[in-house]
C-alpha cells in the first residue's frame, strides 16, 4: 500500500494515544508519517525508542514535545509540524486532562487548565492548520461518555468533553465543504492513568483496554467507516 499520508496525534505518550500509535506503526494502512505530540517525559522517549526498533513499514516518526495548555508554544508547534510533514491528513485530538474534585473544592485555574487541554487545544490545532492551508481528510476528537452525561465529582472534565462533542458537530458541518470528515468518539471507562485518577478503586483488568479504542480510531481510516454516523460514537465494553 502507498504510505504517503500523515497522522498527527496528541497525547501520544501513554494510554489510548500510545496504543493508537503502536497500531499505526504496525499496520500497512497508508499512513507513512506519524507526527506525535506530548510533553517531554521518559514514557514518551521510551515509546519512540521502542517503535523505532520495531518499525516493520519504515514509517517516519516525528515526536514534538509541547504542553497543550501553553497556547503560544502550541501555535509554534503546529507550524513546526506543518513544515516538517508538508500537511496533515488525519488529526486525532486525543490528549486529555482531569483533576476530579467536588464543586466547592474546584479551583477556576484548574477548570481553565482542563478546558485548555481538552477543548482549546483541539480548536487551536484545527484553526492553525486551516490557516496554514491544510486540507484534512479526517479529524477524530476523543471526547468521553462523561461529556454525554454529567458525572458527580467530574464537573470540569464532563463540561470540557460536552463542549468538545458540540465543537465536533460544528467542525463536521463547517469543514464538509473541504471534504473533511469529523468523528467524535465518546469512550467509556478504559484502563489508563487518567481513568485511575477518576476511579482509583477500580480493577483495570475488568474494563476496556486502550488497544480497543485504538482499533476503532484506525477503523475510521477505512472506506467502510464512511457509512457510519460518526458524530458521537460511544465506544465501550
Ligand atoms: N481512560 C478512560 O477511561 C477514558 C474514557 C473516556 C475518554 N477518555 C479520553 O481519552 C483520551 C486519552 O486519555 P487516556 O485515558 O489515554 O489518558 P492517559 O493515559 O492519562 O493519557 C493522556 C495523554 O494526554 C497527554 N496530555 C495530558 N495533558 C497534556 C498537556 N498539558 N500537554 C500535552 N499532552 C498532555 C498525556 O501526555 P503527557 O505525557 O504530556 O502527560 C498523555 O499522552 C483523553 O482525551 C481522555 O479524556 C479516556
From TrEMBL:
GO terms for biological process: fatty acid elongation. Residues 5-189 form the Ketoreductase domain. InterPro entries: KR_dom (IPR057326), NAD(P)-bd_dom_sf (IPR036291), SDR_fam (IPR002347). Pfam families: adh_short. GO terms for molecular function: oxidoreductase activity, acting on the CH-OH group of donors, NAD or NADP as acceptor. PANTHER family: 3-OXOACYL-[ACYL-CARRIER-PROTEIN] REDUCTASE, CHLOROPLASTIC, SHORT-CHAIN DEHYDROGENASES/REDUCTASES FAMILY MEMBER. Belongs to the short-chain dehydrogenases/reductases (SDR) family. This is SDR family oxidoreductase. It comes from Natronoglycomyces albus. The lineage of its organism: Bacteria, Bacillati, Actinomycetota, Actinomycetes, Glycomycetales.
Amino acid at each position: 500500500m502507498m504510505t504517503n499520508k500523515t497522522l498527527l496525534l496528541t497525547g501520544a505518550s501513554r494510554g489510548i494515544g500510545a496504543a493508537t500509535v503502536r497500531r499505526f506503526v504496525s499496520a500497512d494502512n497508508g499512513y507513512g508519517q506519524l507526527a506525535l505530540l506530548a510533553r517531554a517525559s521518559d514514557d514518551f522517549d521510551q515509546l519512540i525508542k521502542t517503535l523505532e526498533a520495531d518499525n516493520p513499514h519504515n514509517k517516519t516518526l516525528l515526536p514534538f514535545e509541547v504542553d497543550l495548555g501553553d497556547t503560544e508554544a502550541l501555535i509554534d508547534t503546529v507550524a513546526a509540524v506543518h513544515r516538517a510533514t508538508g500537511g496533515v491528513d488525519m488529526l486525532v485530538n486525543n490528549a486529555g486532562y482531569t483533576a476530579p474534585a467536588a464543586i466547592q473544592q474546584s479551583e477556576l485555574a484548574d477548570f481553565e487548565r482542563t478546558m485548555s487541554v481538552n477543548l482549546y487545544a483541539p480548536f487551536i490545532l484545527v484553526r492553525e492548520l486551516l490557516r496554514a492551508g491544510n486540507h484534512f481528510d479526517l479529524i477524530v476528537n476523543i471526547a468521553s461518555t462523561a461529556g454525554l452525561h454529567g458525572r458527580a465529582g467530574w464537573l470540569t472534565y464532563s463540561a470540557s468533553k460536552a463542549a468538545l462533542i458540540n465543537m465536533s458537530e460544528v467542525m463536521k458541518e463547517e469543514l464538509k465543504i473541504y471534504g473533511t470528515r469529523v468523528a467524535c468518539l465518546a469512550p467509556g471507562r478504559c484502563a489508563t492513568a487518567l481513568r485511575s485518577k477518576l476511579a482509583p478503586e477500580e480493577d483495570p483488568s475488568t474494563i476496556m483496554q486502550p488497544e480497543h479504542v485504538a482499533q476503532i480510531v484506525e477503523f475510521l481510516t477505512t472506506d467502510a467507516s464512511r457509512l457510519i454516523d460518526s458524530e458521537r460514537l460511544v465506544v465501550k465494553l
